[in-house]
Amino acid sequence: MSYFKHETAIVDENCVIGEGTKIWHFTHISKNVTIGKNCSIGQNVYIAQNIIIGDNVKIQNGVSIYEGITIEDLVFLGPHCVFTNDKFPRAFGDWEITKTILRKGCSIGANATIVCGVELGEYSMVGAGSVVTKDVKPKTLVYGNPAKFTKKFKNEITFKE
Hints:
The structure is a single chain. By secondary structure, the chain is an all-beta fold. The protein contains no helices and 22 strands. It has strands at 4-5, 10-11, 16-17, 22-23, 28-29, 34-35, 40-41, 46-47, 52-53, 58-59, 64-65, 69-71, 76-77, 82-83, 100-102, 107-108, 113-114, 119-120, 125-126, 131-132, 140-143, 148-152. The strands form 5 sheets. Strands 1-4-7-10-13-16-19-21-22 form a 9-stranded mixed beta sheet, with no helix packed on it. It is globular, with a radius of gyration of 15 Å. The termini are far apart.
């Protein structure tokens, strides 16, 4: 095995896990998931079937990733951030999955909520505890409830001006 899986983690059938990836305690990765190289999948993470995750992604503890979410390279998901995947969820009846796209290098703070149907632009940043209801442009910082534009970054990696 070219990746690390803690003994309490569950990886279902037909998954492809990249070299150097680490999967930590009590995590469940459903069938047909693809995870890139050098990722860190924290404790108590759930990844639904058919999800594709890029290279060098860090998913902190307590995150659930549901069908309809696309995660590109270098994405950071802070502890307990939340994703929805249906605009009108009900306990019974048909689900209508609405796609959400996390572009390269975006970063989501702890406890932020990302409502389905949005795109987080390359190297964008969502502040901790924010509720994102609209697309976030590349290299921008948003925060609040609802999340609002706060700042534009010049540098993709360090977010320094």
